[in-house]
Write a structure and sequence with these properties.
- Strands 10, 13, 14, 19 and 20 form a 5-stranded mixed sheet that branches. Strands 5-3-8-9 form a 4-stranded mixed sheet, with no helix packed on it. A 4-stranded antiparallel sheet has the order 12-11-16-17, with no helix packed on it.
- It has 17 helices and 20 strands.
- It has 3 domains: 54-258, Growth Hormone, Chain: A; 315-413 and 612-689, MFS general substrate transporter like domains (Growth Hormone, Chain: A), CATH 1.20.1250; 422-607, no CATH class.
- With 689 residues, it is α+β, with helices and mostly antiparallel strands.
Amino acid sequence: MVGDKAREEMNAFQRNESKETLFTFISAGDDPPKGDFPVQKKSPKLCGSNYPLSIAFIVVNEFCERFSYYGMRAVLTLYFINFFHWDENLSTSVYHAFSALCYFTPVIGAIMADSWLGKYKTIIYLSIVYVVGHLIKSVGAIPSLGNQVVHVVLSMVGLFLIALGTGGIKPCVSAFGGDQFEEEHTSERSKFFSVFYLSINAGSLISTFVTPVLRGDVKCFGEDCYPLAFGVPAALMVLALVVFIAGSGLYRKTPPEGNVLLEVCKCIGFAIKNRLKNRSRQIPKRDHWLDWASEKYSKKLIGEVKMVTRVLFLFIPLPMFWALFDQQGSRWTLQATKMNADFGIYVLQPDQMQFLNPLLILVFIPIFDLGLYPLINMCKFNFTPIRKMATGMILAGMAFGLAAIVEVKINETDMPQLVPKESLIQVLNLAKNPVQVTIQDQHLFQQPTEAFQNPAEYSKLILNGEQQSLHFTLQHQGLSLGFNYTVKEKSVYSLIVFEAEGSLSSRLITDLEAKPENGLAAVRFINGLSQDVNLTVDSKWFIAIQKNYSVSEYMLLERDKYDDGRCITEAGEFTLDLGLLDFGASYTVVITNISRGALQIWKSEDIKANSVHMAWQLPQYLLISAGEVMFSITGLAFSYSQLTQLLPPHLLIITCWKSLLPLICLLSCWYDHAHRFSCHHKVLLTGPI
């Protein structure tokens, strides 16, 4: 939403500049005026105001389109990780490659609208492409349709068409809305852009909250429901297209009048070519390198291109901001998967945290426009647009600094880093009395391990090679028993000690080496009964475990209370109450005995649950959103007043930076998230310089 001061600056610019100049105040992506516009029929007005009725269809169209785009993008990173089983670095790189493509295709849309089809037809045709992309993307997310290759191909084709559609209409919709106003209604047109920006954030706010719920809380094909999470945005895009076409009879449709971008590029190219041809010292020098285009182009155009080059220099920090701003949908979402999302009355999905950004934008815009900026002006401080944008970058840099601190705290709760010639071990004493465990050449477990004692942490084994055979001695009630086990480096083990046939026995089993990903909980079972059991957990996991301390494989479950499991034995069917399986934890559940008609179990938490709460992401979202208001809104007003027609090159600069971001993600794959966030923090802080 453009602030009052920004609107005054734009209107002042209108009064001071000739209508014949290239930089007349017109909407982003609009055509430069070339004489009088064709005679257009006047659209009916809204409730007797100076606002044309046609803009209502455009605003609703934009709301639905932004819901469609941001809703689909909100779950995209987790879709790559959970559905394709890609690693975090590849998922993040593809996510940012898609984002970069979305910033390149507006150039195509602008050229199509200005040189060929006009804005109205461009919006219609590319919206159809947009819908087709969504449909293909939704079909590609159906698990039963083909193999992994089919899913990847359909998804990539769908994403390409979505990028072509959303980017192609980006420079056209707002400009088409501006076309609906008559020349004397500049104030109403300026307010329209505020409402237009509001509709963008409203669509983003609702979709980034709703689509993660559709993904995580609704189950289809026994998994997260990605077909629904992508299908609802597809339906909203269909609705956007229908609404836009419904207003067709009310629109003022200006014909294409030529593409300014092409003229500017030709002018720059000719100037460079002409300068290279005339390098002789005998040829007089010219004041500016663009003056070498004077043989072919008018002084007016050359002067305006000079203005463009000066203004574009000020836009250099802009792509740094937006390229890293998109980390909210990738790295920040992945960070949220490793945190505690329980807010008491509601458990947030990790990709739902993105809804904070549009929510805070809607809150901050009036606070900044009506409170902060007037207060700064009262203090006689000249808070120019450039200073606002620099402040916005500093705030964004601080946000990534906070993200790095949060990541460090998260890493402190992870399993110890495994290194060569080292392993980790814990003891689970399932006997009735304390047991003293001694391991050859190791100085561990100085005190006896109590029966059914939950170990505080893993202990470190030092090996003499990649693997080593170690002798374990168990002392129990005056008896001493020995066992030999081969231990491999960089592995995690549990030594389970139990009573068998009146004596003591043991078994060395491998554990998880890291926390379960995406906030899931891992659980395995040990059957301490003298009979086989069949377990049912969460109505979809069916496990058969043999008797006498056999161990099941791990199963991954979403964080929840599981108190309605079933255990079937020769003695009958019993309720299996696992209690709460928390975010990122790993559990070993031992079925100990059947007493008084009930199943008795003991649960050990091998890997601690995520302890850093997701609320600690709030400060970084506050700072990045405040930075966006200062940077984006100010930059929007600055672009309208200084560089309205040259939006495509502005988008090209962003594209160049965003195209580098996937490469940066791949090259930095050996760094942890904390180092990445620290690097991004430094990049943003150097932008204002």
